[in-house]
Amino acid sequence: MPSGESTRTGTTVEEEELSAFSISGRLFVFTFARNYDNTNDAHLLIVNQSPERATVVIKVPGLDITRFALVEQHATTDISLPPAVIPTDSYDGIGGYAVVVNSSVEICVFGINDAHPRSMDGFTALPVSTMGKEYVVASFNPWTESQISIAAVEDNTELTITFSNSWKHTNIDLKPGEKLRFNLNKLQTVHLDGNTDPTGSRIRSNKPISVLTGCRCAFVPRDITSCDHLVEQIPPFHQLGRSFIASAFMGRTSSTVFRLIAARPNTRVDFSDGRENRTLPAGGFIEFETNQMEAVYIHASMPCLFMAYAKGFESDSKGDPTMTIVPPLEQGVHSVRFVTYNLTRDMDGVRSYITILGECFTLENSTIGNEKITELRGRISYRQIGSSRYCVARLPVDNGVHTISSHHHYVPFVAYAYGFSDYNSYSFPVGMAANTLTCNTRDVEHFCVERVVAILPEGMSGETIDQPQCDYSECVNPIHVILIAIATGAGAIIIEYYMRRKFSERRKEREKKRRRSMMRSAAAAISSLSFNRDRRPALTANVNEAS
């Protein structure tokens, strides 16, 4: 079994600097959502991704809380925050507190909400640099309440939530399609609790925001106990992908529930295993399950958010519900360092796992720690999806810090970590880039990838892969388009002027050469006439003498 270092020791796992950390950054702003009970501390797991020591400052300005941490190179630390950072019933709407994490070097931050001894979940905090202005909500059917939590990072932030389902917020009953609007200043937060499933709802703002969604406590599925906290920080719309792999959580004998949520209308969804193809409206979703022996490739014609849900304890007498983002294949990375969560609030040990998704060639040339993944096949589950190029690797990991690296730097992978104990669980994405995948130029959206990563497995419809492709991963701003057009036009004028000038100079040079040639010819003709005139009298004299 791959080994790792304790999260408490601060020892390094590797000396070399990793090539790509998409979820790492230096500034993070987020909030915690309400758990089933909020009587205990929340936790932040901080992983130093740099070869230098990290100086980390954690602040909760609304509570005048400040924490300091020195994290050695490539090591990790666990920071506790008091229960007051977690919203209570009084914070239904604008209220609650934002958490600000600032670091001197690149770090990753994972939030663990285990304020209730038997109900916890985790989320990957996304850096401020990766935030956006449009989000799609992922939640579930609540047993207590479903949740939407938003934090503003700038003053004068205007946001609108358009609900896909009916929603009761305090004394306000909203119908599907109706909206809630808020105006927030820097570090203000919004916490909304509802009695219906808001999955597919749309959040838009005029400035970047942080969005966490989930449930205070939910049964997964609705007829299996027990309930557990669900939470995840959602990536913005422009980072959503179209190609996914569904593989059940390791460590459970029960199947895993998945939801594919469409962000745009007329989204066609194809499955590699023969499931019925579907076309979804904006905010619509497909819910399906995979068992431990299945792995399914999914391709959508438009950007989607893909979520995995572990089932409740009664399904197999292990774990409990948890919710995580399954990263799209377009958001692959080449290296990732992550940390597991070891003990529950009641000191029950957590068994942790990692699922790695990508092209088979990449996984076969990847390592975890110092061990090659293909050499761990006796201890892991490794599966190819039909006859396609895609594979799934699932393996248990010891408590501590772990590093996964691909030694084929052109083809990346995605990954998510999770763990289970009795009546408890956590999960969060650990290998997920934050590239811009959808460009918006003059109100026309385009799918932007540096290369085609979604090669459809055999037997799947080829219709959905015919998408407009951009040459670069970043969007082109309309102003940039105008400036480029002006620069191109000016360049063309300059080039044309230069070519005309060179042509004129060459024509003048040819004219000079022609005139010089004509003058030489005329001089030669005159010289020839003079020679003949001199010889003619001499010949006459000779003739006369002869006669």
UniProtKB/TrEMBL annotation:
Domain IgGFc-binding protein N-terminal as annotated: residue spans: 122-419
The name this protein goes by in its record: IgGFc-binding protein N-terminal domain-containing protein
Transmembrane regions: 479-499
Domain of life of the organism encoding this protein: Eukaryota
Organism: Strongylocentrotus purpuratus (Purple sea urchin)
Pfam families, per the entry: IgGFc_binding
Keywords, sorted A to Z: Membrane, Transmembrane, Transmembrane helix
